[in-house]
Specification:
The chain has helices at about 10-25, 40-50, 60-65, 80-90, 105-115, 130-140, 170-175, 175-195, 285-305, 310-325; strands spanning about 1-5, 30-35, 55, 70, 90-95, 120-125, 145-155, 195-205, 210-220, 220-230, 235-240, 245-250, 255-260, 270, 325. The protein is of the alpha/beta class. It has 2 domains: about 1-125 and about 285-310, NAD(P)-binding Rossmann-like Domain (Rossmann fold, 3-Layer(aba) Sandwich); about 125-280 and about 320-325, Dihydrodipicolinate Reductase, domain 2, CATH 3.30.360. Strands 14-13-12-11-7-10-9-8-15 form a 9-stranded mixed beta sheet, with helices on one face. A 6-stranded parallel beta sheet has the order 3-2-1-4-5-6, sandwiched between helices. A hairpin with a 2-residue loop joins β11 (about 235-240) and β12 (about 245-250). α1 (about 10-25) crosses α9 (about 285-305). The chain starts with a strand and ends in a 12-residue tail after the last strand.
Length: about 350
């Protein structure tokens, strides 16, 4: 079994990495041998759920435990440094999103992976969803006719169990809701439609990190409007409008989407299966599958070089949004003038 190390024992590790690692160990694919987090209680919780894992007092001690793959689930500001240090020691890296605090920082990580001839992958779990693959197929075959527009809403009232208010600092996370959710949304749009032109970007950061943001993009003749929010409760949806109908996908539903064709008397809800005829993966199944692929990449790297497919295009687009930021209209704010 491949020896795995984990850096970062926060909510994403508790909720998703632990069940994935338990499944991989049961399959005989990999085993967590060591973990590190400066929060001793969080570290003890993870090691308690994965018996046999060494609780490390530092990242250097984690690397010294001899992992073949490091899962970097630490706060984003640590991603680049921890990944580069692991790669320099010949250890493969699977890094949580966002891969880095900027596209420039991500480029240094990719260069380190090429130099080490070790895999570097990013936790873009939605790539594993049957619904995502089905949308790509429907768009490629023109089932809804020529695509005219795309509208996306992603977010909702914030309820992620963060352990520190530092999560909401630009220094720790690299931004707000755009940096958090943009890697997923932009990565999917680029995968389906290619690289876009940024038409406009607005957010409500006002010197801090943004809670609401919106971007207007152009994929050739296709206009896209993307809205992110941490306080607005509305359905998380991608809507693709074509000349002959539309596709509607709720972004956390791994295995279903709606297909509405003009002139048809009903809406078709497509229940999808994994390629190969197996049952459609739920979110945890998709999360586990991306780690299976990361483990498989370790075996290919020596013969074929470093297999890389992180979402750097999404990071470039996020950087461009921040560079061209304009204030989001907030008409409920009144500037009072003192006479």
């Amino acid at each position: 079994m491949i020896r795995i190390g984990l850096s970062g024992c926060g909510a994403v590790s508790e909720r998703y990495y632990v069940p994935a690692l338990q499944a991989l160990q049961a399959e005989g694919r990999g085993q967590l041998v060591a973990a590190f987090d400066p929060d001793h209680a969080a570290l003890a919780s993870i090691c308690g759920r994965l018996p046999g894992a060494q609780a490390c007092r530092s990242y250097a001690e984690l690397l010294a435990a001899g992992p073949e793959l490091i899962l970097v689930a630490s706060p984003p500001r640590w991603h680049a440094g921890q990944a580069a240090e692991a790669l320099a020691k010949g250890v493969a890296v699977h890094c949580e999103k966002p891969l880095a605090m900027s596209a420039e920082e991500a480029a240094t990580m990719i260069a380190a992976a090429h130099a080490a001839r070790r895999p570097l992958t990013e936790g873009l779990v939605r790539r594993q969803f049957p619904a995502v693959r089905a949308i790509a197929d429907l768009l490629e075959r023109g089932v809804i006719g020529p695509l005219a527009s795309v509208e996306v809403f992603e977010g909702g009232p914030f309820d992620w169990p963060v352990s520190s208010p530092a999560y909401f600092s630009r220094a720790e996370s690299g931004g707000g809701v755009l940096r958090d959710l943009g890697p997923h949304v932009f990565d999917l749009l680029i995968g389906w439609l290619g690289e876009p032109e940024l038409v406009a970007y607005q957010d409500d950061a006002q010197g801090g990190v943004e809670v609401n943001a919106q971007a207007r993009l152009a994929f050739g003749d296709v206009a896209a409007k993307v809205r992110f929010s941490r306080d607005w409760s509305r359905p998380n949806r991608f809507v693709f409008q074509g000349a002959a109908g539309r596709i509607v996908w709720t972004s956390y539903e791994t295995d279903r989407l709606e297909l509405i064709l003009d002139g048809a008397p009903f809406t078709s809800t497509l229940l999808l299966e994994e390629t190969g005829g197996g049952p459609a993966a739920d979110f945890q199944g998709a999360f586990t599958n991306q780690l299976r692929l990361a483990l498989e990449g370790i075996g290919r790297a020596d013969a074929e070089g470093s297999p890389l497919d992180p979402g750097v295009g999404a990071l470039r687009l996020i950087d461009l949004c921040y560079a061209r930021r304009a204030p989001l209209s907030e008409p409920w704010l009144v500037n009072e003038q003192i006479a």
